[in-house]
Amino acid sequence: MSLQRKKITVVGGGFTGATAAFMVAQQELGDVVLIDLARVENPIKGKSLDMEQAAPIQMFNAKIKGTSDYADTANSDVVLITAGVARKPGMSRDDLVQINQGVMKSVAKQIATYSPNAMVIVLTNPVDAMTYTVLKETGFPKNHVIGQSGVLDTARFRTFIAKELNVSVKDVSGFVLGGHGDTMVPLIRYSSVGGIPVSKLLSEEKIESIVNRTRTGGAEIVNLLGDGSAYYAPAAAMVEMTAAILNDEKRILPAIAYLEGEYGYNEICLGVPTLLGKDGIEKIFELDLEPVEKEALDQSAAAVKDVLNILT
Ligand SMILES: NC(=O)C1=CN([C@@H]2O[C@H](COP(=O)(O)OP(=O)(O)OC[C@H]3O[C@@H](n4cnc5c(N)ncnc54)[C@H](O)[C@@H]3O)[C@@H](O)[C@H]2O)C=CC1
Ligand SMILES: O=C([O-])CC(=O)C(=O)O
């Protein structure tokens, strides 16, 4: 009997990449390769060895290899891209576009060479435009290149609602669509707590303040940290998507997908409800939106298009 272990490569061994690598190993989703080029080789090897030595304590089976050599990433099943630069207080995610586009181009080329059949999950910001860049540069099928924004944005939204109502986060569900920026669209009509619509439990003012806090949730953490951006919840979001793909879970999760007419948009990668399974994005759900929701999504799509227009 041959049971092939899954291989997950994490590109970028900084805050989000190292955290995601550790979570992937803890959840025994497969063996992990953590690759970082900008740092000298020894620290990435040190981090990976340190993680591996947690295995006998936490009782997980996973190899974790730190490297600067793409040959070690060959034939990965899933590749998580976290390489690049994070913003600092006062910056927008879009300020990172030029520098991170260059990083995406070089990373995409390596992934296409070494892991041509991989599913790719992009985290690097501005993530809608970076997902588009990776899709174009790898030439991979559109269902194989997926951006992470909605799981994180929805998790923030769910956290704030649960805190406000003093209930378990487990019972709060919701959907945040659109670009990963201040124009993102939390959909109140599709949000509920234990099946009860959020609008029956919270006042309009409270909901509006939660929506605003969700939209600026990344900046809130950037300002608190002072140097760098969020990484625990972003890593958890990527790992949830990785598990959905590797275990063929058929999860319905918001993710950044390449759109060909869905919601009326073309030539754009944008956050929409998706079905994630072994083939990556297996389906995009087109929800019926009310005019005010569609207008908000149009604004968000326009903001993403503005960034796409400055890609070289
Ligand atoms: N989409 C989302 O929801 C989120 C996106 N992000 C974004 O993720 C990215 C990473 O964030 P952090 O991990 O906090 O940053 P970080 O600075 O801690 O780590 C980035 C790592 O990438 C490495 N790197 C740079 N160029 C590379 C290359 N060509 N190949 C391999 N590695 C390379 C750097 O050496 C560094 O170790 C940022 O762009 C950030 O804005 C972060 C959180 C959430
Ligand atoms: O805010 C940032 O720069 C990082 C990010 O995308 C997030 O935490 O949502």
In short:
The chain has 312 residues and is of the alpha/beta class. The protein is built from 10 helices and 14 strands.
List keywords for this structure.
binds oxaloacetate ion; 41% helix; 312 residues; alpha/beta; single chain; Rossmann fold; L-2-Hydroxyisocaproate Dehydrogenase, Chain A, domain 2; 20% strand; 2 domains; binds 1,4-dihydronicotinamide adenine dinucleotide; six-stranded parallel sheet; 10 helices; three-stranded antiparallel sheet
CATH architecture classification name of the largest domain: Alpha-Beta Complex
> What is the general shape?
globular
Distinct compounds present: 1,4-dihydronicotinamide adenine dinucleotide, oxaloacetate ion
Instruction: Flag low-confidence runs.
Output: none
Portion of residues within helices: 40-55%
User: What's the number of domains?
Assistant: 2
How many helical elements? 10
CATH names the topology of the largest domain as L-2-Hydroxyisocaproate Dehydrogenase, Chain A, domain 2
Distance between the termini: 49 Å
- CATH uppermost class of the largest domain: Alpha Beta
Strands in their spatial order, largest beta sheet? 3-2-1-4-5-6
Proportion of beta-strand residues:
15-25%
CATH superfamily of the largest domain: Lactate dehydrogenase/glycoside hydrolase, family 4, C-terminal
Strand element count: 14
Alpha carbon gyration radius? 19 Å
Report the major sheet.
6 strands, parallel
Give the overall pLDDT as a whole number.
Answer: 96
Textual characterization of the structure:
With about 300 residues, this protein is α/β, with parallel strands linked by helices. Strand 13 (about 265-275) and strand 14 (about 280-285) form a beta hairpin. It has two domains: about 5-150, 3-Layer(aba) Sandwich (Rossmann fold); about 150-310, Lactate dehydrogenase/glycoside hydrolase, family 4, C-terminal (L-2-Hydroxyisocaproate Dehydrogenase, Chain A, domain 2), CATH 3.90.110.10. The protein has helices spanning about 15-25, 40-50, 55-60, 95-115, 125-140, 150-165, 205-215, 215-225, 230-245, 290-310, and strands at about 5-10, 30-35, 65, 80, 120, 145, 170-175, 175, 185, 190-195, 195, 250-260, 265-275, 280-285. Helix 1 packs across helix 9, helix 4 packs parallel to helix 5 and helix 6 runs antiparallel to helix 7 (about 205-215). The protein contains ten helices and 14 strands. Bound molecules: 1,4-dihydronicotinamide adenine dinucleotide and oxaloacetate ion. Oxaloacetate ion binds near residues 125, 219 and 222. It is an enzyme of class 1 (oxidoreductase). GO terms for molecular function: L-lactate dehydrogenase (NAD+) activity; L-malate dehydrogenase (NAD+) activity. One of its GO terms (biological process) is lactate metabolic process.
